[in-house]
Specification:
Radius of gyration: 27 Å
CATH architecture of the largest domain: Alpha-Beta Complex
Strand content: 15-25%
Distance between the termini: 72 Å
Oligomer: single chain
Structural class: alpha/beta
Largest sheet: 8 strands, mixed
Number of strands: 24
Number of helices: 22
Length: 587
């Protein structure tokens, strides 16, 4: 009996300690949550470009929140719509005296890509057009940062700062020779002359077709970027191209003489102008300033019965419920939810994806088609909407793209690795017992036979035909025309617009307005299913204490173990892929 009492007492003490520690953790986390300051007259709006800009509101992991609390830091990042909407609204707000841009653009994964930067830049142009000053101070300037801040009234650069303008480059790492050396075999089946996703594994150098498409793509992007900068700074774009073809870098005074920056100054000299805008006394800290994210939070959303739903497809397209990438099952549920919601009058699907699983893309594409029969569907292409990303876009009522969007890549491939030689070289011998000749088809320890590869080729070609038929139907193009545009080729948004793969030039805000117009809405409320989370939302989700989004019969309480399983989810690589030919990061 005494032992039992001791066990109960120990459990009670442990429970109390757990609750106390839990409350301490929550208190620390609450302490890291910033509250939006009040907005007074002569308030300065600020945008920190070092915070990566994602298309969709960010999902947070509770473990990250705890880690941030322990380290005393606040993890920040912007959602594209909040940045653009905040800047546009502030342009009309008499309390906002100006816009201050700080920090160099931080590009991370799919975030702060060229498409997103184009939309932020356009919002800055609109802000300045309203007669309000835009100021930036930079320690250094690279192409991406200069592209975004070039519409500013005043660009101040540190006296020892450098302006990097050496053009754009895309690198691909080729593994073929290393695989040969270590005994790793690769077999590939692809359709499309330009579908070069398999090249790094089966070649030791870039093919002529791949080099051709990359050179055209980079030239289109560079012309767009340099042209926009030159226009904003009032200089001849040929002078920028001369810089890129020459040393590729300018010192601060050289940049000022050329007109790329307005002044060479230290940060404290910049603060003088910011104090004037905020009516702050000399040598006093500027208190009347507000970050774009906090300003967006402080805005009162318009109330309307008519809603435009915005659904985000950002990341690699995979099967299942994956949240950090584009989980097909999860996104399909959101599309069904929008279709069944009578208050949702139109839907905007924002795509920032290089593609992925062809079958997963088709799951999403099917729901897009069903949704389109009920209400208008407008697609907004972000920085990249290629292959499977374009698959889900092709049949929308209207497709919007930025000139810098990477799109197209209408092609399909299958890729198989085998470690047979590597295993044998290290004394490993694999034996298999089968009930049928192809039972071990997915084994990593044998190559595929010619007959098996012929089967894969037939499947890949069938998926490719279906892809082209979908594009022809959705874009109202002759099939022969699509066959010529396909071949796995990646196009710039500028060319996609000219070729009929996209309809209109513009970003997310324009797509939302177009969707509302198609639905006959004069006023509307924007509804985001994938909303940003606060710390409590993230905790509840990680503990499995939130219902699933979507159908009532699919709702339920998730278990903690299920949440852990999601963290271990990996992309399904067994099936045919409709993906961008390479992990393309243009810098």
């Amino acid at each position: 009996m005494k032992g039992f009492v001791k066990q109960v007492a120990a459990m009670l003490v442990a429970l109390v300690l757990f609750l106390v520690l839990g409350l301490l953790f929550l208190g620390m986390i609450l302490g890291t949550q910033e509250t939006a300051p009040s907005i007074e007259a002569k308030t300065l709006l600020t945008l920190d470009l070092e915070n990566p800009i994602s298309d969709r509101p960010s999902l947070q992991r509770f473990s990250d929140l705890v880690d941030d609390a322990l380290r005393g830091r606040v993890r920040r990042g912007y959602a594209l719509r909040e940045v653009v909407a905040a800047i546009d609204h502030a342009a009309e707000d008499d309390r906002i005296s100006g816009l201050f841009l700080k920090g160099e653009v931080a590009r991370e994964g799919y975030r702060s890509g060229w498409g997103a930067l184009a939309e932020v830049r356009a919002a800055i142009e609109r802000f300045r057009a309203k007669g309000k000053p835009v100021i930036t101070w930079q320690e250094n300037l690279d192409e991406a940062t200069l592209y975004v801040v070039s519409p500013a009234n005043r660009i101040l650069l540190h006296p020892l700062g450098l302006v990097e303008f050496n053009g754009l480059a895309a690198e691909t790492l080729y593994f073929h020779d290393a695989f040969e050396k270590y005994g790793i075999g690769v077999q590939a089946v692809r359709v499309g002359r330009y579908k070069s996703a398999v090249e790094p594994f089966v070649k030791s150098h870039m093919s002529d077709a791949n080099r051709e498409q990359l050179e055209t793509l980079l030239r289109d992007l560079f012309d767009e970027i340099s042209g926009a900068i030159a226009s904003s700074r009032g200089i001849d774009p040929r002078r920028l191209r001369q810089v890129a073809r020459g040393e590729g870098v300018l010192q601060a005074e050289e940049a000022r003489r050329m007109g790329l920056v307005t002044s060479v100054a230290y940060y404290d000299e910049t603060l003088r102008r910011l104090r004037e805008l905020t009516d702050t006394a000399a040598d006093k800290a500027i208190e009347r300033q507000i970050d774009v994210a906090d300003y967006f939070t402080a805005l009162r959303p318009e109330r309307s019965e008519g809603k435009v739903a915005v659904i985000y497809a950002e990341g690699e397209i995979v099967s299942g419920d994956e949240e950090q990438e584009v989980g097909a099952r999860r996104l399909a549920r959101l599309l069904r939810k929008a279709r069944r919601d009578e208050k949702v009058k139109a839907v905007v699907l924002r795509i920032n994806s290089p593609g992925g699983s062809a079958s997963a893309a088709d799951v999403i594409g099917r729901e897009v088609d069903r949704l389109k029969k009920r209400k208008p569907v407008v697609v907004s292409l972000g920085s990249v909407a290629a292959s499977g990303g374009y698959w889900i876009a092709a049949t929308a009522d209207q497709v919007w793209a930025e000139p810098t969007t990477l799109t197209g890549s209408i092609g399909v491939f299958g890729l198989f690795f085998n470690l047979q030689r590597l295993a044998n070289d290290h004394g490993l011998n694999r034996e298999a017992v089968r009930t049928a000749p192809r039972a071990d088809f997915y084994s990593l320890f044998r190559p595929k036979s010619e007959a098996e590869l012929a089967t894969v080729r037939r499947i890949v070609e069938g998926v490719y035909d279906r892809f082209m038929e979908r594009v022809a139907r959705g874009r109202a193009l002759p099939l022969k025309r699509v066959q010529a545009l396909a071949q796995g080729r990646v196009w710039s948004g500028k060319r996609a617009l000219a070729l009929g793969l996209a309809d209109r030039a513009g970003g997310l805000q324009e797509a939302i307005a177009a969707a509302a117009e198609r639905a006959g809405l004069k006023s509307y409320q924007i509804l985001e299913y994938q909303r940003a989370e606060n710390w409590l939302d993230a905790l509840m989700r990680q503990l499995g204490l939130e219902p699933e989004e979507g159908d009532a019969q699919e709702s339920g309480m998730k278990t903690l173990w299920g949440a852990l399983e999601k963290l271990l989810l990996v992309a399904d690589r067994r099936h045919v892929q409709a993906r961008l030919p390479f992990d393309l990061f243009i810098r």
